[in-house]
Specification:
The protein is mainly alpha-helical. It has two domains: about 1-75, no CATH class; about 80-125, no CATH class. About 65% of the residues lie in helices and about 0% in strands. The chain has helices spanning about 10-15, 25-50, 65-75, 80-95, 105-120. It starts with 7 loop residues before the first helix and ends with a helix.
Length: about 120
């Protein structure tokens, strides 16, 4: 039942708030608060899009909002140098590999980012 409300945003906000796996008091109520708020917002804005979508001018270019949400999530998630390197390498490789067949550019970018992050995490500090 709890997975029904799972979204990238709810997961990241909860994981950011409860970084220490031993500090879990309040985790479930926090998650349900965040996830149910996001769910309600999604439902309301979907209805608004259904009712108002045809009158919103294309010049507003609202399709750009989704990548911006994920950029904001990335900023919240990256808390270390290996994480920053992984995000940077993954993003750059995904853009460079964009023209690969079957949409493989994203997968190649993700794998490159993971490899870079793991390599950076192994370096002595």
């Amino acid at each position: 039942r709890i997975a029904y409300l799972l979204t990238d945003q709810a997961y990241l906000l909860t994981a950011t708030r409860f970084r220490d796996p031993h500090d879990t008091p309040g985790l479930v109520p926090y998650y349900f608060g965040v996830a149910s708020t996001l769910w309600a917002t999604w439902q309301i804005t979907t209805l608004a899009g259904l009712l108002l979508g045809s009158v919103i001018p294309e010049s507003w270019q609202l399709e750009f909002t989704i990548p911006m949400v994920f950029a904001a999530l990335l900023i919240l998630a990256v808390r270390s140098r290996p994480g920053l390197l992984a995000a940077t390498v993954g993003g750059v490789v995904a853009v460079l590999a964009h023209d690969l067949p079957y949409g493989l550019g994203l997968m190649v970018g993700a794998l490159a980012g993971v490899a870079a992050g793991m390599a950076a995490d192994r370096e002595p500090r």
